[in-house]
């Protein structure tokens, strides 16, 4: 369980598509069998052909296997967002069925045919009970929510998502996506912050991080944070830039100062945090190496 956020940015008010995308995810892993939680060094992001990025929440194995299934796709095949949607849905459902067969059917010497339709009525009572119990356990433990982010054939920032058992959202070139156990909190926070795809990228980064920090009220969302900026360039490249931790810490102090009690404000942000945030993101969008040398300074 986790939270992941993808938001569009820099969409011209005069028309056209978003020219940047912001991705944010936590780093916590929860072990379902014990309830134990730990901050992991693993990124909850996978790179796909054609520069598309995938964020996940839930079962990392299901996410990895879906991403692996898409690695064989040629970049030219997924220039169209509709093609990637179709391939991603097929891969997710194929991986899901394989897991069901391996974890539920095969150990009980059953096949899909055995549990289809009225054939269930022919199973001995003990076998049927064991099968139903295993299926319920598998459905509880299995599953991943996925966000796909990238630039479509027109160069427009595009987002779509898949939820278990393979439900596909509509492609969107004008909104944001949230997934995971903290999705509802993050979504309400983004709505309250009036996030718009026409916002400048540094504003979208601030709002997405703000929403992630608020989602930490959910027990299964950790404090560790990863963030990336995807930018459309003249050459068509849009490899994501991983946001440096000093900048994330600076934004956290700014968010805490803006939403916390004045009596508890023990770590105020630096006075020029807005200017430094804007300068950092502007450098990233321009393809320059951002300066983080003194971001830790108050």
Describe this structure in words.
The chain has 298 residues and is of the alpha+beta class. It is built from seven helices and twelve strands. It has helices spanning 60-70, 81-105, 125-141, 183-192, 201-215, 245-259, 273-285, and strands spanning 3-9, 20-26, 28-30, 37-39, 45-47, 53-58, 144-151, 157-163, 167-168, 176-180, 225-231, 241-242. The strands form three sheets. Strands 10-1-2-11-12 form a five-stranded antiparallel beta sheet, covered by helices on one side. It has a five-stranded antiparallel beta sheet with strand order 5-6-7-8-9. A two-stranded antiparallel sheet has the order 3-4. Strand 5 (45-47) and strand 6 form a beta hairpin. Helix 2 packs across helix 3 and helix 5 (201-215) crosses helix 7. It is globular and about 70 Å long. The model has no long low-confidence stretch (mean pLDDT 87).
Brief summary:
The protein has 298 residues and is an alpha+beta fold. It is built from seven helices and twelve strands.
């Amino acid at each position: 369980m986790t939270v992941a956020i993808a938001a569009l940015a820099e969409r011209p008010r005069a028309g056209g598509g978003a020219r940047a995308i912001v991705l944010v995810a936590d780093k916590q892993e929860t072990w379902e069998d014990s309830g134990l939680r730990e901050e992991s060094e693993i990124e909850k992001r996978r790179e796909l052909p054609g520069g598309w990025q995938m964020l996940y929440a839930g079962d990392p194995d299901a996410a990895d296997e879906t991403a692996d299934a898409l690695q064989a796709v040629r970049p030219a095949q997924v220039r169209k967002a509709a093609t990637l949607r179709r391939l991603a849905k097929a891969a997710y459902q194929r991986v899901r069925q394989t897991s069901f067969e391996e974890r539920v059917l095969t150990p009980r010497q059953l096949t899909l045919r055995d549990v289809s339709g009225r054939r269930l009525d022919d199973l001995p009572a003990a076998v049927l009970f064991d099968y139903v119990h295993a299926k319920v356990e598998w459905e509880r433990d299995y599953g991943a929510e996925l966000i796909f982010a990238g630039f479509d054939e027109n160069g427009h920032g595009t987002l779509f998502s898949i939820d278990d058992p393979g439900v596909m959202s509509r492609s969107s070139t004008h909104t944001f996506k949230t997934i995971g156990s903290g999705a509802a909190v993050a979504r309400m926070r983004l709505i309250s912050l009036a996030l718009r795809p026409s916002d400048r990228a540094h504003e979208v980064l601030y709002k997405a991080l703000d929403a992630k920090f608020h989602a930490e009220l959910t027990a299964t969302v950790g404090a560790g944070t990863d963030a990336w900026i995807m930018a459309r360039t003249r050459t068509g490249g849009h490899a994501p830039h991983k946001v440096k931790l000093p900048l994330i810490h600076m934004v956290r102090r700014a968010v805490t100062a803006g939403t916390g009690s004045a009596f508890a404000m023990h770590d105020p942000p630096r006075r020029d945090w807005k200017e430094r945030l804007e300068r950092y993101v502007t450098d990233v969008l321009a393809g320059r190496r951002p300066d983080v040398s003194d971001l830790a300074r108050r």
